[in-house]
Specification:
Strand content: 15-25%
Number of strands: 6
Distance between the termini: 22 Å
Number of helices: 10
Radius of gyration: 28 Å
Length: 366
């Protein structure tokens, strides 16, 4: 690595880390100002506030703003280099534009790989602590409001709940049926079901169980219905209270492998809101890729010296960043509502901005 590479890499990373640290500090100050009365009223332990909330706050929000501040950092220090004629000097000395671009891309790789690891592995762990803290101290009144809940819990097995209390981990007006060869072979009805965390099973109250029994007699098939009633009955099915937790929370706490397996499992069950999980799964990879695209645009836009200093280039950078975020939001909505393929919708902003980056690259001062 030559002097020019070290110089640009140091400037890039230094500006990026400084700007991210500054914005996070501002966010923490405003968040603390908003939540401090609640902390004092609830007598929240200082250790939990620091370790379980604000320490987890840093990777979550730092990574969220990393592409934007990558772009702003590139524009800021590159515009200053251009204003001091450093780019003109490098190009005049015979250094190719692509060679100057190399340390930018190396730094973008460092930021993108860090973001990728954060998205898929570290942030889900951080969110687990952060959400647990929020549910303990902020969301005590939260309860599931869904009614008439249907879930596939096995091959041909359908569970129905009229309602579910997530705090008590209890479902009401329960039914479970099994379908085989387009025929109902089993039906269970209960007044309520309570989750038993010790053996991962459900305890049902006031149970009526109806089973279709098939007998073969002298080359003929005889169907007989058996009905039993129980005051209490334990069952084990592929369904837990976590399956009814807020999908936003489930999204945030699952790492790459957990999220992938969950999507596969929910697709087999016929679960709702699969698109939300697919969008999150693809977004965690597509989001870091934006670092490369925005870096190329930032260098191409700000490497030319213009009248008026860096103001115009920073304004253009903020406009392009806002446009990118708007595209991500629009196509995320389209994907989660079923109007577009989730993989394509997540990557369209990157595809569009890759073309924009190529256009700016062709127009850059070389």
């Amino acid at each position: 690595m030559k002097i020019i590479d070290k110089y640009i890499l140091k400037k890039f990373l230094g500006t990026f880390i400084y700007s991210i640290a500054l914005i996070l500090l501002i966010f923490i100050v405003f968040d603390l100002k908003d939540k401090l009365p609640g902390f004092l009223e609830d007598k929240t332990p200082l250790k939990e506030i620091i370790l379980d909330y604000y320490l987890m706050f840093i990777p979550v929000y730092g990574n969220m703003f990393s592409p934007l501040f990558t772009f702003i950092s590139v524009i800021f220090f590159t515009s200053r280099m251009a204003h001091r004629n450093e780019f003109v000097a490098m190009l005049s000395s015979g250094i190719p534009y692509n060679r100057i671009l190399r340390p930018y891309l190396i730094t973008a790789v460092i930021i993108a790989v860090t973001s990728l690891v954060l998205n898929h592995i570290i942030i889900p762990k951080a969110n687990r602590k952060k959400i647990a803290f929020e549910d303990k101290w902020f969301n005590n009144a939260y309860n599931i409001e869904d009614k008439n809940i249907h879930r596939m819990v096995g091959d041909g097995e359908v569970l129905y709940l009229y309602s579910f209390d997530n705090r008590a981990k209890m479902g009401y007006k329960v039914s479970l049926e099994k379908i085989k060869n387009h025929q109902q072979v089993y039906y269970l009805k209960a007044e309520a079901m309570q989750w038993d965390s010790t053996d991962k099973s459900w305890l049902l109250n006031n149970v009526m169980e109806r089973r279709l029994v098939v007998h073969t007699h002298q080359d003929s098939v005889v169907y007989k219905e058996e009905v039993k009633v129980y005051p209490n009955k334990k069952i084990t099915i592929d369904f837990t209270p976590d399956d009814l937790w807020r999908y936003e929370s489930k999204l945030e706490i699952m790492n790459y492998w957990e999220l992938k397996n969950y999507i596969k499992k929910e697709r087999q069950k016929g679960g709702s809101k699969i698109e939300y999980f697919e969008v999150e799964h693809y977004r965690r990879t597509a989001f870091p890729f934006a670092t490369f695209v925005l870096t190329i645009i930032g260098v191409s836009v700000s490497s030319r010296k213009v009248r008026g200093g860096v103001g115009w280039t920073i304004a253009l950078g903020l406009f392009l960043s806002a446009l990118y975020i708007m595209l991500m939001y629009i196509f995320t909505i389209l994907a989660t509502t079923g109007f577009a393929n989730t993989l394509l919708a997540v990557w369209i902003p990157n595809i569009v901005f890759s073309l924009v980056a190529y256009w700016f690259y062709t127009k850059a001062q070389k």
